[in-house]
């Protein structure tokens, strides 16, 4: 039976009562709900590390800018609870008022891997993410927390946040789950029309091609340019970026002389999609 | 016997070994060293709340701006350790590299009570304070932490930080200790020449007069102006501010219709002094 908890105090009490915050291990899987198989794979990963799995469901307003899809973001708590049956022990689904009570005035900013890429297009995004993730980690006090590699830059930002604040938690990145045509699972895929969905399936194919070209030619700037052109040709409405970067720091690299990652963000109509994969 | 610990990992290991992080209570007193009787009073206050008292000694570089007294700030670890004998159980004195390892890129900003006053003159101060205090609280995981009312705005900023991040710690403010002439104890008093020391002793007297006038007249702006003029007349080199504010939020108030605090910052030569007291 999953416990459904809406307050930080309630969460702490439940963890204390479980004995797992003292003697056992706790894993946290932070989500914004609208759960799909990708999230469930994070929960299953969490279960490998801990006898008690907490899934948080919170559509965090501070990581959305005005004009983004905060209001439209799919919310389906009842369906989410059913999907988590047998997987999670506690669902922590606080209100915005619980997470940001009146007078809330604290913001956590992370530089380093947060610079560029998503930040160029969503400048407030990572401060919102870092603040809410820190608050969730402080509230749940987990031994491990699991994040999807789908949001690869976010994963690195969270790792830096945890290192810098010396939060006593291990951050685990879990691999991207994909549809049959390779489209990365995302709650935002639900926005896509049938025609858009077909175009969306091209993103991962073009990135895979780019990886092969990068390994063959080594001219990373030419590969980024070619992939950008291929995305436009495939019918995407906008290509925010395609970038091959250092896989640990996201710094620019001139050659594949270290672990590298290709990351991309595109739009189809109003829907923004991101994807990434290892290059070397 | 005081334990002297220089790393976060060492601190956590010592707290775990003591059993006090599990079964008993831990109190933290964050300081920048150069300890005086004011600090010792904070340690004694901490002892009332906890069987294990940790005093941190760290001159935090991120709360000093270029041109401020970071390099000159008095450092006296051996003397500090002696003063803490019998008072503290653990002295946590990390290096700057331990607190800010290479690539450190996380900053915590607090609005609310951090706006104005000190921030008008030391714009980076409270972000430095909030970041290091959060890190110290996360490292030590205390049940209570004690801060002096001498740094009254800082105390309110720390309380807001702790509330906003829901850190599981109670922040306790301890009253200002004063010399015979009423000068608030401060490590920076050591900078004062004999002549400057005589002038410094006027600060608290002028603030006390201002409190009496505020209670009598109720014209807070006139009282602030008169106190500012009196400080210039007393020989201070500069008056950064004298302000009567809401004691909880530090917002401007027009009348003494709620708990209020008078706060002042002045300079004598290169030495900057602050003081504050309750008005109503």
Outline the structure in words.
The structure is a homodimer of 280-residue chains. The first copy, chain A, has two domains: 3-174, HUPs (Rossmann fold); 187-278, Pantoate-beta-alanine ligase, C-terminal domain (Pantoate--beta-alanine Ligase, Chain: A,domain 2), CATH 3.30.1300. The radius of gyration of chain A is 19 Å and the shape is globular. Chain A has helices spanning 8-18, 37-49, 77-84, 96-99, 118-121, 125-140, 152-165, 194-200, 202-217, 220-234; strands spanning 3-5, 26-31, 52-57, 90-92, 106-110, 144-148, 170-174, 238-246, 260-268, 271-278. The relative contact order of chain A is 0.13. The termini of chain A are far apart. Helices cover 39% and strands 21% of the residues of chain A. With 280 residues, the first copy, chain A, is an alpha/beta fold. Chain A is built from ten helices and ten strands. The first copy, chain A, has a six-stranded parallel sheet, with helices on both faces. A three-stranded antiparallel sheet of chain A has the order 8-9-10, with helices on one face. Chains A and B meet through strand 5, helix 6 and helix 7 of A and strand 5, helix 6 and helix 7 of B. Strand 5 of chain A pairs antiparallel with strand 5 (106-110) of chain B, so a sheet runs across the interface.
SSE layout and pairings?
The structure is a homodimer of 280-residue chains.
Chain A: E1 3-5, H1 8-18, E2 26-31, H2 37-49, E3 52-57, H3 77-84, E4 90-92, H4 96-99, E5 106-110, H5 118-121, H6 125-140, E6 144-148, H7 152-165, E7 170-174, H8 194-200, H9 202-217, H10 220-234, E8 238-246, E9 260-268, E10 271-278
Parallel strand pairs in A: 1-4, 2-3, 2-6, 3-4, 6-7
Antiparallel strand pairs in A: 8-9, 9-10
Helix pairs in contact in A: 6-7, 9-10
């Amino acid at each position: 039976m999953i416990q459904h908890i809406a307050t930080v105090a309630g969460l702490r009490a439940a963890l204390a009562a479980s004995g797992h915050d003292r003697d056992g291990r706790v894993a946290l899987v932070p989500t914004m709900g609208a759960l799909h198989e990708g999230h469930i794979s994070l929960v299953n990963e969490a279960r490998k590390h801990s006898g008690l799995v907490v899934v948080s469901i919170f559509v965090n307003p501070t990581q959305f800018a005005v004009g983004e899809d905060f209001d439209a973001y799919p919310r389906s708590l009842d369906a989410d609870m059913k999907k988590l049956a047998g997987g999670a022990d506690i669902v922590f689904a606080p209100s915005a008022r619980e997470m940001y009570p009146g007078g809330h005035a604290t913001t956590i900013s992370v530089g380093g891997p947060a610079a560029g890429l998503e930040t160029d297009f969503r400048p407030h995004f990572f401060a919102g993410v870092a603040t809410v993730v820190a608050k969730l980690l402080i509230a749940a006090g987990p031994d491990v927390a699991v994040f999807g590699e789908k949001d690869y830059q976010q994963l690195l930002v969270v790792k830096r946040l945890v290192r810098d604040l010396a939060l006593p938690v291990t951050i685990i990145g879990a691999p991207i789950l994909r549809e049959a045509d390779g489209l990365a699972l995302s709650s935002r895929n639900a926005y896509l029309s049938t025609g858009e969905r077909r175009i969306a399936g091209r993103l991962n194919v073009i990135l895979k091609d780019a990886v092969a070209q990068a390994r063959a030619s080594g001219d990373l700037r030419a590969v980024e340019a070619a992939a950008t052109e291929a995305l436009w040709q495939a019918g995407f409405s906008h290509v925010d970026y395609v970038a091959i970067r250092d896989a640990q720091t996201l710094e620019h690299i001139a050659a594949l002389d270290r672990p590298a990652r290709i990351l991309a963000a595109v739009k189809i109509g109003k829907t923004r999609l991101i994807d990434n994969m290892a290059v070397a």
